[in-house]
Amino acid sequence: MNILGSEINGDDVKRTAVMGLAVATTYDDPAINDGKKPSNEQSTSKSPLKNTFSEIPLEKPTKAWTQPAPGDKQGQKTFMEKARHKPTKIMNSEGSEHKIFLFAITGGPCAGKTTCLQYLSERFAPKFKVFVVPEMAAMTVHSGVSIIPSNFTPESHTAFTKGIMKAQMDLESYFYNIALWEKSDVIIICDRGMMDNFAYCTPQVRQNVLDETGWTIQDITNKRYDAVFHLVTAADGAESFYTLENNEARTETAEVARMLDKWTQGAWLPHQNLYIIDNSLPGFDKKMGRLHNAICKYLNIPQGVHFTKKYLVSGEWDDSMLPKDVNFTKFEEEFTYLFSNDQNQRIWIKKRVDQSGNLSYSYVTRHLAAKEEHRMELKRKIGGKQFCEYCLQKDPKCDPVHKEYTVFLWNNITYIVEQFDMNGTRMTVLRVNTDNESSKNNATIPEFLTVAEDISENEKYFGISIAKTKFKESQENVASMVKTPSGKTSQQPSRKLS
What predicted TM-score, i.e. pTM, was given to this entire model? Predict the structure, then answer.
């Protein structure tokens, strides 16, 4: 097969990954988009939660699609053609032969990304096959291209951003298709992801790219990556370790590095599994250990620990109370608790709906313990079909719980404001999630919020308690509806099914 003027044979297939070559992609292919251009995320629906379960198919190899033998030119051609971009939803379906996880490692300059890629490759092998997708921007610079932002016009910046994102998408999809051939579970680690490119764009350029490609933010965040891990630059909290010497593509001062770090955090905020690893604990080894534990959480490996602080917010809450320079995102979630015979664990499924009505689903298992550091929560993404199947296992003594969320970043910590109804009252809770107890205890309350009390260990506000309270309320409402004026329960007429 001819790529960039060179014939690619069987031995070159692996070499293309090292060289960073990606197979050309036709993005207006009717076979991909059914001849229609997907709409962008412009919906302003006030309550987008709805009972629709849309899936984006991911082509998987059949028994007939086997790895090409040496000299099999037709097989090699088919292999390369399969390694093209298709709209994907990375999910681990029940009964699949092996699982594939797609993670993005991002962060500010001199955050430790390059070192962590080797670290993670060693830590997760040999249980997992680990693929590392190189950073497209660094590959571009190392290839001799000079990226000078001051020379960009809105048109040229749009073209450049769209081109580098398409190439990155091709490369990620190329490795994903190779992972489909593996017999063991595969972790694909991307050195930066799609949204990193938007961190360096104006809102207009970003919208131009979305308009011209038909992508939505949901397509290139939650539907693509299982989780995103942001390493905070050493220039923020570990200034003595900030250096420009270990990366020829890095030219930023410490002040600029901190600014870019914030931009990158803000770009990835729409992802539901964004995890920020800061420099609050001294020592790079601890930073890598925290990253490893955070990833374990999504691999169903019981090693990751997280700490939560919850406060009851007093007074009214609205996102207009946030300072103008604070990035935030909003979404809704519906929790359905499943029946479990194990008293030491809670299992639930949740449906998340973003502001544009896009759906995603998760299966969560929480292992209970008296001490917070001994508790464990494991997550995995599921599809709409699996969600419906799990609904049949609903705990009969719990009703679904609906919550509305506003997530924002403040001093490298993720704060979550959640609102829900309980006992006929609108409740507002501020939640702080960290990966170490020190950060949890030292997290400050933003000055634009007023909290009434710490409810972290108040069982009344536990999710399972809210679900049981709602079930009790619904039973009382049903009972009151069937009462006659005399106080006796009326006999309800039977209904005929037509």
Answer: 0.59
